[in-house]
Amino acid sequence: MIAPPVIQIVLGLYAALLAAGGVIGLLKAGSRPSLIAGLISSALTVLAFALSFSYPLAGLALGFLVALSLTFFFAARFFKSRKVMPSGMLAVLSLLVAFLTFLAMAG
User: Fold this and answer.
1) Do the beta carbons of residue 62 and residue 47 sit within 8 Å?
2) pLDDT (0 to 100) of residue 1
3) Could you give the CA distance from residue 106 to residue 46 in angstroms, rounded to a whole number?
4) How many folded domains does the chain comprise?
């Protein structure tokens, strides 16, 4: 079982990394879609983080769905481009977050 504060920290860090990734995508590649997608994904993860305090199951479920969706998205991009950065790394990171939130929900 994963303690609630641990998964909340994971969700908070994941949200920060998603937002930072969107900003980096804008700065390095001039990609507005990366910025928008990163900020939307981050906002949903922040919502999951906030919900996890009052409604733990709802917060964890939302976090799981966001992370799982991003796992599939970034895995597809990785298999198309074969570039580890950023798509491969984000696919693995998202899979890890999805796995941890699943364990927290199951426990």
Assistant:
1) yes
2) 75
3) 21
4) 1
80 pLDDT more than 80: yes
Residues in the chain: 107
pLDDT in the model for residue 62:
98
Q: 86-92, long-range: CB within 8 Å, 24+ apart, which pairs?
A: 86/21, 86/24, 86/25, 90/21
Can you tell me the mean pLDDT for 55-71? 97
Distance CA 7, CA 90 (A): 18
- Whether the CB-CB separation of 93 and 14 falls below 8 Å is answered with yes
Structural domain span for residue 76 = 4-106
CB 17 within 8 A of CB 93: yes
- How confident is residue 2, by pLDDT bands cut at 50, 70 and 90? confident
Closest CA to 90 of 68, 60, 61: 68
The runs of H, that is alpha helices, within 1-107 are 4-29, 32-54, 56-81, 89-106
